[in-house]
Specification:
The protein has eight helices and five strands, in the order H-H-E-H-E-H-E-H-E-E-H-H-H. By secondary structure, it is α/β, with parallel strands linked by helices. It has a five-stranded mixed beta sheet, with helices on both faces. The longest helix has 77 residues.
């Protein structure tokens, strides 16, 4: 039987742990509350750039060699629930489907330390083309993403599939993806978006090199879209952390209630034994 002192010590530890979990949950909820206005306006501001990649017949394009790179975005922070498991599970599913296509080659460029170790557990380590980690200590910015893409386009891919957690609400985060074309394919389909032609012509006149203009537009727009994916993943991380901490608080409450009942039973039993001893001693003195 566990001693009452040990039960009391456990009660104290679990009570402190529940307080910490509540504090983490409140911080996550407060951050999400502050980001409400950002979330509502961000999609409108980035829609124009997404339009550059909205090509209806992109999937029907006849590739001689369809080389895909999957870019899963994972989180290296703690207490984030299952957001990494969702993205890695979706990555495994997409990679399995692509490998069934005989003309497809698939590689993975993973963002996040936990993501690379998770892919190794899923037997996808041979497909990892490269990785970029330590985002926990780096400031997330457009420049950071731009540097990643300058290196990424050197791998000569046809399609880039960006996997991330999309934020819908604090209780709802789902895996989403962007299916983005390569630079050459972007140039090929660019003039389907006729409203951008005057802008591009003006830029080409100023720079006198069309390749430079296309490359800069491509990198800039792609960096914005992937930065959007990072931000969505960050919002999902906060929502998932709030829910994970809520579940932790509820589980800890049940454990505290069970421990308190056990402690009170032992305490009551000890008091009863002491009273019996006192009464017995009093009766023996009277006799």
């Amino acid at each position: 039987m566990v001693k009452s002192k040990d039960l009391l010590r456990r009660l104290t530890v679990f009570t402190k742990f529940m307080s910490i979990a509540k504090a983490i949950q409140m911080v996550a909820i407060t951050k999400l509350k502050k980001l409400e206005s950002v979330i509502s306006t961000r999609q409108l501001s980035i829609y124009t750039y997404k339009e550059l990649f909205m090509v209806d017949d992109l999937k029907s394009f006849n590739f001689l060699r369809n080389k895909k790179i999957i870019l899963p975005i994972t989180s290296d922070k703690q207490c984030c629930g299952i957001i990494n498991s969702r993205v890695l599970g979706a990555t495994l599913k997409v990679a399995s489907v692509c490998k069934k296509e005989k003309h497809d080659t698939i590689n993975i460029f993973v963002l996040g330390t936990k993501g690379s170790s998770g892919l190794a557990r899923l037997d996808l380590s041979n497909d990892i083309l490269g990785k970029c980690d330590n985002f926990k200590s780096e400031l997330l910015s457009l420049y950071t993403i731009y540097i990643i893409f300058v290196n990424l386009i050197s791998y000569n891919f046809d399609r880039l599939i960006v996997m991330f957690n999309k934020f819908f609400s604090m209780f709802d985060q789902r895996v989403a993806f962007y299916d983005l074309p390569s630079l050459n394919l972007f140039k090929h389909f660019f003039f389907q978006n006729r409203k951008f032609i005057p802008m591009v012509k003006a830029l080409i006149k100023k720079s006198k090199t069309s390749d430079c203009v296309y490359t800069n537009i491509y990198l800039y727009c792609l960096s914005l879209i992937v930065l959007d994916s990072f931000e969505e993943n960050e919002y999902s991380e906060l929502g998932s952390r709030a829910i994970a901490m809520e579940n932790t608080v509820q589980s800890t409450k049940k454990m505290i209630d069970a421990l308190r009942i056990s402690y009170n039973k032992q305490r009551q039993s000890r008091i009863t034994n002491d009273l019996v001893e006192v009464v017995s001693a009093a009766e023996s003195l009277v006799a």
